[in-house]
Specification:
The longest helix has 22 residues. The relative contact order is 0.17. The strands form 2 sheets. The chain has a 7-stranded mixed sheet, with helices on both faces. A 4-stranded parallel sheet has the order 7-8-6-9, with helices on both faces. The chain starts with a strand and ends with a helix. The chain is an alpha/beta fold. Strand 10 and strand 11 form a beta hairpin. Helix 1 crosses helix 10, helix 6 packs across helix 7 and helix 8 packs across helix 9. The chain is elongated, with a radius of gyration of 21 Å. The chain has 2 domains: 181 residues, 3-Layer(aba) Sandwich (Rossmann fold), CATH 3.40.50.450; 134 residues, Rossmann fold (3-Layer(aba) Sandwich), CATH 3.40.50. The structure holds 6-O-phosphono-beta-D-fructofuranose. The site of 6-O-phosphono-beta-D-fructofuranose has 12 residues, from loops.
């Protein structure tokens, strides 16, 4: 059996741990051969490959990023894209494919499955917004990075009696903002799921200063004011139709300063929260996903995604993961509000 492996979409810590587990178990227990597809769906679309065996995966467990490279190429949007992938897989003698990715990458995998391509999905995203799995790997690492940033912002904010706004990733789901904000003791957390009222935010800022502490506001890039629009970068849409976000932190700091008269600054964490070595939690989760993915190939149970449910790794239909995004439920946000202001 020859198995292709690809990583698509935004990279995240733990991708290499999955690749390593897939290859190690695949070679040792099943005697499989592997083909590494480069740069997400661009690899099978254009026949871009690299050798993938025990030698290539040695030492990569703690390394961030992905040895295979990634991209946001969407073959479904390209005329004849699916047929080209089928032809390239056949020409390379690839019998099955493991696609490691988030909503977009696994959405393509779902469509390829309906065309008869033998594919297994493995959930990755720092955003933790895939349904059918309790956690995606990468999320824990980014939350820890953002938490550490908030810890550091507290001390400088207090020295200068300033408002500090930290903008974290999260386009449609506020999981990173919620967890990092709670773990870091932010005084306000703003998420895309719950449009915020600027007067209320300013009220929380004022009350924090009254108790002689400086406020830290943790805002997800996709958060938006109740009476305003999403703040986006002036950049073209990507192949999956996503706008480029970032700007809400600066906007918020300036609006708060105008209304409260308190000096306010913003820090945008950006790709720092996606790079570098994975936490132990993410290394273990990614490794377990990799082992389960190659087991699913061996069982011939295609069209599935491996998922964490409780402490067990299970297989779910690909479409169960990509149909609806897993957003922060209102009751989880209500919990966090106990610490606002
Ligand atoms: O999907 C993961 C993610 O990190 C989002 O949180 C963020 O909006 C997006 O990727 C950024 O993508 P890019 O690195 O392509 O700008």
């Amino acid at each position: 059996m020859r198995v292709g492996v690809l990583t698509g979409g935004g990279d995240c810590p733990g991708l290499n741990a999955v690749i390593r587990a897939v290859v190690r178990k695949g070679v040792k227990d099943y005697g499989y051969e592997f083909v590494g597809f480069r740069d997400g769906w661009k690899g099978p679309l254009e026949g871009l490959t690299m050798p993938l065996g025990i030698e290539q995966v040695r030492g990569i467990l703690p390394r961030g990023g992905t040895i295979l490279g990634s991209s946001r190429t969407n073959p479904i949007k390209i005329e004849g894209g699916v047929a080209r992938i089928e032809e390239n897989l056949a020409a390379l003698g690839v019998d099955a494919l493991i696609a490691i990715g988030g909503e977009d990458t696994l959405g393509v995998a779902t469509q390829l499955d309906s065309h008869g391509v033998k594919v297994i999905g493995c959930p990755k995203t720092i955003d933790n917004d895939l349904s059918a799995t309790d956690y995606t790997f990468g999320f824990d690492t980014s939350v820890n990075i953002a938490m550490e940033a908030i810890d550091r912002l507290h001390t400088t904010a207090e020295s200068h009696h300033r408002v500090l706004v930290i903008e974290v990733m999260g386009r449609h789901a506020g999981w990173i903002a919620l967890h990092a904000g709670l773990a870091g003791g932010a005084n306000v957390i703003l998420i895309p799921e719950v449009p915020f009222d600027l007067d209320e935010v300013c009220g929380w800022v004022e009350s924090r200063f009254e108790s002689h502490y400086a406020p830290i506001i943790c805002v997800a890039e996709g958060a938006l004011p109740a009476d305003g629009d999403l703040i986006t970068k002036d950049a073209p849409l990507d192949a999956f139709g996503h706008v480029r976000l970032s700007g809400i932190g600066e906007w918020l700091a300036s609006a708060i300063e105008d209304r409260t008269g308190k000096e306010s600054r913003a820090a945008v964490l950006g790709h720092i929260q996606r790079g570098g070595t994975p936490t132990a939690f993410d290394r273990v989760l990614a490794t377990r996903f990799g082992l389960a993915a190659i087991d699913a190939v061996h069982a011939g149970d295609f069209g599935k995604m491996v998922a964490l449910q409780g402490t067990d790794i299970v297989r779910v239909p690909l479409e169960a993961a990509t149909g609806v995004l897993k957003t922060v439920p209102p009751e989880r946000y209500e919990e966090a509000k106990a610490f606002f202001g």
